[in-house]
Design a protein that fits this description.
Elements lengths: L1 H8 L2 H43 L12 H28 L4 H12 L2 H18 L8 E6 L6 E9 L12 E7 L7 E7 L4 E3 L3 H9 L22 E3 L8
Parallel strand pairs: 5-6
Antiparallel strand pairs: 1-2, 1-5, 2-3, 3-4
Helix pairs in contact: 2-3
Length: 244
C-alpha cells in the first residue's frame, strides 16, 4: 500500500502539476514587470496623443498633414514619450537633490497595503535582473544544502573577512544561497573553500536557472576564466540530468 502511494506521489500527474506550477511562477516573474511597464507606458502615451489632438486645428500644424503620416506621428509620440519619461525619471533619481523626494514617494507608495507589496516585489525583481551581478558575485558554485547529498546553486561574494580567518583552520568563503523562484531573498553562509564546487557558467545563466526553478538550464560552455580564482575549489560542469 505504501509503495503504491509512493508511486502515485511520483507519477506523471504529479510531475505535470509541478511543471505547470513552475511554468506559472516563471511566467509571472516575466509578465508582471513587463505588463506593469506596458501599462504605465500606455497611460503616458495616451496622455501625449490626447494632448496633441486637443489643440485647435488652426494652431495645430499636424492636422493638415496626410492621415497616414498623422497616424505614424502619433505612433512615434506614443513610443518616444514614455521612453523619454523613463529616462528623465532615472536621471532625476540619480540627482542628489531629488533623491529625498524619490525616497518620500517610494515610502508613501509602500505604505499602501496592496500596491506597496506589489511595488516592493517588482522593484526587487527588476533590481536583480538589471543590475551588474558580475561585480557582486565572483563565481557560481554548488554547495551541499540543506543537507548532505543535496546541492544548491550559490554565489561566492568573496573570501572570509580578516577578523574571521583566525577562527577557522582552513580558507573560508562568503556565499549567498538564493531562493527559487525569487532570488532576491536567500541565506548568507560561511563555507570552507574545499567544500564548494565551481560551476563554469556565468552569473546571469545561474539567475535564469534559479528564477525558472530549473526549467531553463544553463548552457554547458567552458569558462576558463573561472579557473584560478580560487585554485583550491573544484571546478565542474553543470548537467541538468546528472549530479555534481
Amino acid at each position: 500500500m505504501s509503495q503504491s502511494r509512493k508511486d502515485m506521489g511520483s507519477g506523471p500527474l504529479v510531475r505535470l502539476r509541478n511543471d505547470l506550477k513552475n511554468d506559472l511562477l516563471t511566467g509571472l516573474a516575466v509578465v508582471i514587470p513587463l505588463a506593469t511597464t506596458l501599462w504605465l507606458s500606455s497611460i503616458v502615451a495616451r496622455w501625449a496623443v490626447e494632448f496633441l489632438t486637443s489643440v485647435p486645428k488652426q494652431f495645430n500644424p499636424l492636422q493638415t498633414q496626410n492621415p497616414l503620416l498623422l497616424s505614424f506621428i502619433n505612433l512615434m509620440v506614443g513610443l518616444l514619450v514614455p521612453l523619454l519619461a523613463i529616462l528623465l525619471i532615472g536621471l532625476m533619481a540619480r540627482i542628489a537633490v531629488v533623491r529625498p523626494l524619490v525616497a518620500f514617494g517610494e515610502d508613501s507608495l509602500i505604505r499602501i497595503p496592496l500596491a506597496g507589496t506589489v511595488y516592493k516585489t517588482l522593484k526587487q525583481l527588476l533590481q536583480t535582473l538589471l543590475r551588474d551581478n558580475a561585480s557582486r558575485f565572483r563565481r557560481v558554485v554548488l554547495v551541499e544544502y540543506p543537507r548532505e547529498g543535496i546541492f544548491a546553486i550559490a554565489f561566492v561574494t568573496g573570501p572570509a573577512g580578516q577578523s574571521l580567518r583566525p577562527l577557522f583552520p582552513e580558507p573560508m568563503l562568503n556565499i549567498f544561497i538564493p531562493t527559487s523562484p525569487n532570488p532576491t531573498t536567500g541565506w548568507y553562509a560561511l563555507v570552507a573553500e574545499k567544500d564548494v564546487k565551481t560551476l563554469d557558467i556565468p552569473v546571469d545563466m545561474a539567475f535564469r536557472t534559479i528564477i525558472s526553478a530549473g526549467i531553463l538550464s544553463p548552457d554547458q560552455k567552458p569558462s576558463p576564466s573561472s579557473e584560478g580564482l580560487y585554485p583550491q575549489g573544484q571546478t565542474i560542469s553543470y548537467s541538468p540530468s546528472g549530479g555534481a
